[in-house]
Amino acid sequence: MDDSVFLKRTIVKHTLWSERLQEDRKLRIYLPPGYNELLSYPVVYCQDGEEFFNFGRIATIAGKLILEGDVDPFIIVGVEVNVAVRTQEYAPFGARFDQYLACFAEEIIPYVEQNYPVRRSPNERIVAGDSLGGSVSLHLALRYPELFTRVLSLSGAFYPLTLEWIEDETDLSWLEINMVVGLQERDYKTDTGVYDFVQLNRDAKKLLVDRGAKVDYREKDGRHLWGFWQKELPESLLYFLNT
Asked: Domain of life of the organism in this record (predicted)?
């Protein structure tokens, strides 16, 4: 099939006022081919929404998966972030972390569900993120297990505090997580220090498995960049949407 077919898409932009964050938050919503508001759809919520669309090419990937018949149609909700405060919102030690989690679960989810026919059971709601976005996606599930049980993590930034919080959990048998990390991510400089993302992901995986979580884990050649995550995104989406 001609790739131009996959580039045709419907993306709707919304601006939501967040009481929790006391500011506007922008959403990008992908509606699948043949979208019909009388039907209902699985939904993928993405941190770093703008980057998932622009650099991850998630809309094109979704169109290809759907039109080639691998998966049933699904909706994507990209939640945009101001890069200047991203660590403050996504990192567990961030000053806006609690407010962001509350905004996501208590404002964004209800807003989307009021406006679009997304399915509301946790097993048809996936939360996805790259780097700290993968970490905050896991934290959303840990704080709101009634909403999120399926996490898609691309090179998750599972910093020591996140690992401590996972260790504090006793039963994670309700959680399902797909994790991928690049083998060239061993010495990555961030705004809070230099981290070995391979070891952090291995440590997180062990803690999660030990607590009963269902973990699908892979290590591939790749760097801490969207070029790597874009290539891995189809496999990660298929893991959840093909089952």
From this structure: Bacteria
